[in-house]
Amino acid sequence: MVKENEVAGRLEWRVNMPNGSSRILAPESRETCSRLQSLVMGIVLNIKAFLDKAWNLAVNEPKKVVHCLKVGLALSLVSVFYYMRPLYDGVGGNAMWAVMTVVVVFEYTVGSTLYKCVNRAIGTCLAGSLGIGVHWVASQAGDKFEPVILQVSVFLLAAAATFSRFIPTIKARFDYGAMIFILTFSLVSVSGYRVDKLVELAHERVSTIAIGASICIFITMILCPVWAGTELHHLISNNLEKLADSLAGYAAENFSVDGSKNVHEKDSSKKLQGYKCVLNSKAAEESMANFARWEPAHGKFNFRHPWKQYLKIGASMRSCAYCIETLHGSINSNTETPEFLKKPLNDVCMRLGTTSSKVLKEMSSMIKTMKKSTKLDILVDEMNSSVEGLQNALKIFPSYQHIPTPDPGTEEAPNGTEEPSLKSTALSLMEIVQMATLTSLLVEIASRIEGIVEEVKELASQAEFRDESSMKSKQTQTKINGNDGNEHEVTMKTLQKV
Amino acid sequence: MVKENEVAGRLEWRVNMPNGSSRILAPESRETCSRLQSLVMGIVLNIKAFLDKAWNLAVNEPKKVVHCLKVGLALSLVSVFYYMRPLYDGVGGNAMWAVMTVVVVFEYTVGSTLYKCVNRAIGTCLAGSLGIGVHWVASQAGDKFEPVILQVSVFLLAAAATFSRFIPTIKARFDYGAMIFILTFSLVSVSGYRVDKLVELAHERVSTIAIGASICIFITMILCPVWAGTELHHLISNNLEKLADSLAGYAAENFSVDGSKNVHEKDSSKKLQGYKCVLNSKAAEESMANFARWEPAHGKFNFRHPWKQYLKIGASMRSCAYCIETLHGSINSNTETPEFLKKPLNDVCMRLGTTSSKVLKEMSSMIKTMKKSTKLDILVDEMNSSVEGLQNALKIFPSYQHIPTPDPGTEEAPNGTEEPSLKSTALSLMEIVQMATLTSLLVEIASRIEGIVEEVKELASQAEFRDESSMKSKQTQTKINGNDGNEHEVTMKTLQKV
Predict the structure, then answer these.
(1) A13 or B197, greater pLDDT
(2) Which of A100, A441, A444 comes nearest B183 by C-beta?
(3) Buried-state track A384-413, b at ≥16 Cβ within 10 A, e below 16
(4) What ipTM is given for this predicted complex?
(5) pTM exceeds 0.90, yes or no
(6) In whole angstroms, what is the distance from residue A405 CA to residue B446 CA?
(7) Closest Cα to residue B334, out of B433, B238, B427, B267?
(8) Where is the composition biased (Polar residues) (chains A, B) (predicted)?
(9) Is residue B403 a contact partner of residue B428, using CB atoms and an 8 Å limit?
(10) A436, A485, B71, B91: which has the fewest C-beta neighbours closer than 10 Å?
């Protein structure tokens, strides 16, 4: 044991020996000892912090834990092929490919798993057949040219496939497929040079990959499936709610006349920052929309659910969030407007903030329930009338003469006393700037919310949201599809050009 | 050949037969014919558009083409192992693993290639040794329990490793490694059940992976290397320039008094939109900074170059871009302010816009050249004095009485004629709102630019940018490192706690 004693103003370190005596530690061994201790302490603390973080993650998102168990289950299932003699004899050493397929293909959402499965299947088949074709051509060319042809084909196709991965449309849909194409083509065309019975080998590999992929698809779709589409749907609806909370919280904090703003300080500041999630959700939205396209019909979503429309809603939400961010910034960085200036506009601003927030909330619940809302138009009208109210208030805004100045009684502002009257004018104008920015940002936010409303309405019509009077829900399904008519028209035009 | 004749106001379709006669086409065959034609046309047009896009990409970013050729070269090199009898005998059928390694590990930037190589190496070794260990334990447990132990271990470790991929710190650095860990562990522990000579097999696989990885690292670092760090550096510096152009363009478009704003209309509108790149570059910045950490010293960058600081600059740039976006939006959506109101503030706004843009430009060139700039402080001072100038101008802003109204001569505004005077007041106040928003957004942008300046200065000190009087460049290298001192202090404190 190490003990610290202060002897005559000087630190001294003692180690208690097993026999009861104690020994003074030399400075270097003290240092080593303490370093070791601090190192161990640091590691322990780090591990603890890490485990805490992991535990919180697990508690907050149990779906992710379930996903982990699903991966474990899929791997256990696929490894059965090794343990069961009859199964092993069926697929041979290639069972490895099934394991590999499960590991690389099993993703968090159904959509991304399907995306990878389909890509892997297409890439493998395409590259496999092409590889066998090239191998056949090469084998006809004689022993000398065979490796040259194979090498050149690998070089060219790998380069071309790699390049295709840079093209945005390919990257979005077939990035993984292109990689698998390169992999399979190289393996087949190169190993074909050594391995006989190439077709048989390819057949075995394809069948093991199919086994792996089908296990993945089965498990991911049956056991607590996480649909990318549903996640996107919830993300958009939650983000709308966060924007609404942000705006309502902001209005309450800045325009409320009662002292309610200090209640639940911490909770409200968290809500106020909600718009930041919207600012940063672009990448998540895009990848989810990408994967959602691969998913079959599930829950309330059809196969051709307009996922792209969610991206448009996301974009207009972000444009609104930029404005809210500026609003927060422009208020935080400046001094507060004095009460006597604030009062005339506070009520109208509060009303605009509240009605805007209500529109956002209504859209959020409209998306959440997938029902058309009759209230939405009313709320939008309310918001617009608040905007008008604000503009009217600005029009009858008390002019600067009525503002109390250090020397009152200069109501009629005679031209002779320019110096003091100018000063009081200046003060009020500077503060009008502050208040004016606030109001015009609020108006701008309202106009951007109208942009969101349009996109949400477009979604409602494309996705055939039910009317709130849910009796009519069946009528929408028998709606005549207008696309056929359009196609016909185009064909006729092409005909007439011949 | 199909011909169209108009006979008595009715369309008729004729096919010329090989024997010279012609036959009237029945409607259905016409339709089939035209459909086929439009289908082929559509496909051809699509392919042409796709090829055009690809060609443009290749012309605009030749680096990407070079990358494709590098991938082709790496695959050709690694396939040599198959064609050379002595090499093939050395690594056996496992040469496949070398090919696979090249395909999955070879990435666009050096950093991401290194990240994947290191992750693959760590993951493979860790999982391989663990797998062999588990296999040994299982083999001691007897034939009955062996598969059970293996299954359970695969299940548990796969689930745990999958979960670790959800933890942000692990995801950022070891996501790929965790996947390889699962893959290798499953393969080793499962296939170990069948394959004898497990250690030998593992050795062969590791050596082939090492061959593949070293070929990748060699090619990616020697032939036209694309460093993630350098890309990040250029991205940040370019984005600063884009912001500057956006702001300068905006100022020129809205505040310039001469007619210069219509020159190069298209070019300037592209520049005006530059801030949008900044809004959307977060994901790119983060992944580049992530990969840059894995890169060795290269060009002007040391091994411990402060890549994280670039992210901070990016964040403050984005916060500035939000404001610029709002500025653009608030102008586009409202009516223009009449000239008589604009004139008094135009000059100061123009000056503020120009000086702010100059500060951004200076920072961009400072980062580009990696030299400390003596001009920067002067430019910031200029910007701040423009802000003051703007605020002063607001203070002496002509009050609404001097604004020409439909009925002039109401300078003294007698209280009796309230109705018309209120109207003229209202007009001017509404337009003050517009102008006020503009000015206060400009001021806000300037204050956010100061935030960027601070982050850039921090980068300059952390990355030890050279002084512009480049004589002193050698002094910075011998600067005493303060970290040791800090560490010592911490140790002493820990010591005293014991």
Answers:
(1) B197
(2) A100
(3) bebbebbbebbeebebbbebebeeeeeeeb
(4) 0.77
(5) no
(6) 31
(7) B433
(8) 472-484
(9) yes
(10) A485
